[in-house]
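Notes continue from the previous slide.

Worked example: a multi-chain complex. Inputs as given:
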Amino acid sequence: MEKYEIGLIPGPVKIPEEIRRVWLNDFASSDLEDEFFALYHENQVLIQKLLRTKNNVVITSGEAMSILWASLKCTLKPGEKILAVSSGLFGSGFADMARAIGAYAETCEFPYDEVPEPEKVYEHAKKFRPKVITAVHCETPSGTLTPCLAEIGKIAREVEALFVVDFVSSAGGVELDVDACKIDIGLLGSQKVLSLTPSISISTISPHAWQIINDVNYSGYEAFADWREVPEKKFMPYTHDWHSMKALNISLENIMNEGIDGACARHSEAAKLCRDLGREIGLELFPKSEEICSPTVTAFYVPEKFTWENFNERLRARGLAVGGNYGSLAGKVFRIGHMGSQADSDLVRRGMKIIREVLA
Amino acid sequence: MEKYEIGLIPGPVKIPEEIRRVWLNDFASSDLEDEFFALYHENQVLIQKLLRTKNNVVITSGEAMSILWASLKCTLKPGEKILAVSSGLFGSGFADMARAIGAYAETCEFPYDEVPEPEKVYEHAKKFRPKVITAVHCETPSGTLTPCLAEIGKIAREVEALFVVDFVSSAGGVELDVDACKIDIGLLGSQKVLSLTPSISISTISPHAWQIINDVNYSGYEAFADWREVPEKKFMPYTHDWHSMKALNISLENIMNEGIDGACARHSEAAKLCRDLGREIGLELFPKSEEICSPTVTAFYVPEKFTWENFNERLRARGLAVGGNYGSLAGKVFRIGHMGSQADSDLVRRGMKIIREVLA
């Protein structure tokens, strides 16, 4: 279908009309106008506030995979070591991507329905001595939230590794303090909590990360280097997308107006409601415990009496779209995405009502 | 300024309201819906028609620099040889980019106000035996159009090199036959003739290019490999931008409705008018002759009695935005972009009237 009646996909989420109307603007060239660079800078400051960081913010064009690749390509030379802390598909994905670019990767693995334990990460990191440690804040496919980013950040400092964190599907809906967690490179997508088109990506980069990036000196579309001083130099490696930049501004302003705490509370409430209603109607949570469930996405086992395809077909026939899964979770686990515009208790209630009907 | 009264920038060009209104759609997830993959396929077919090719078409998310990088990264391993045919900034840019990724690049250079001569390219290619030969159809900074793509394509075949062509700012406004020119990888941007946001990029890829791409086996956001069978496999390496895909569809349909010949004639007329009016008011063309001027962009020397900054300020004070320049042409050559929505004789006349006033 082209449009969801009740959309609870864990990204891309529903883009509010206010955001979509940004495209009605007849913007000038982003390469040339001071107003564009001022907007870019305004977004940098808002992101710093949202993520509680003094680190530099880089806003690039393209889907979030572009910055996941960038975080590895800009920091690792062939043969250099990376430890991917993994309790899910994206966690292991970092190791796969690193290997594909010739780095030497090990994973510190935990079951997909659990979250990383800092002790095991510490042991592994001390022995392995990686140049980079990666972690994933919200494992969207598993519906889990890693609570120990600060601990892993401390470990990274101790073993002198760069700490790279994918918070693509958490930041904005979950309390996150980039500086307290000592995150050197933080990665945020647009089509999740920010409820934008998948056309813009946001990275936070620490001074230490900039040193490594300069040293590695990677070239390509994913290269961070040329983005270090965009508002100051008024120069970018390619023509930016003014509409997406403006849409990001509105999304960030909306979060600030609601208050970061308010936005996080709204996500937690929607998530709790989803879990509560799920329990009521007999759904089984995929994560081992409620404590590690993400406030942005809830993963349930596909009910036993259905195949995923059959279940999904019935939900869709009633206007509800939820997320399926990938890799080893495909067919077994489905997901309710209550992030950004979808972190809405009424919407969750409507969606869960349909699931109840299908299960009845 | 945020908006141009009279916009004649050579890209990003003015986005027609019909295109901008696409974003009012509340689209579903591009990862999941058959309608998205059908739209993707429809665009592939329209692009094949527009560019007269049977080659596979790949439509990715991100600005056109992403596919310029992709064309090199996916076809060259470190140390492999590339010959960049260059009569301008983008021509030489290919060599710079290739060197940055460890390839061995030579340029077959021509003055920026001229176009490549096939004889010289042939001599160079025969001696150098490159794996890849690159060329640029329209050198936007110089306002020139390379007329000898077919000849260079023939040379590439003879020396068994892959032929990569940047037609980012020409295709759609200039007659182009990808298959007759034996173009293995062709690169088209969205914010030029297609008059879209700079959020989507289009590549044509020949069977021979796919062989090389498979052999090189490059990984990253710029990797072409995973895009080979998108509508067939209904899988993409990242979430695509449905709005941009739909906007592309409307832009291509509009060209088809006008007719490719009609669109090309409209560009030629606007360009001729621009040159004629320029001559009338005493502007000097940058290209050595009218024959090599691009139908999409006209480059004039900055009039002697002005600095570029001073001239530009006066034009802008009257509501006209034109393009400045880069590299060795900065401050010396300015450009009128009459491509896509701006290939409009009335608009060109209004713009040139303002230049006449400023020169008076």
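Summary box: Chain B is about 40% helix and 15% strand. Chain B touches chain A through 55 residues (CB under 8 Å).
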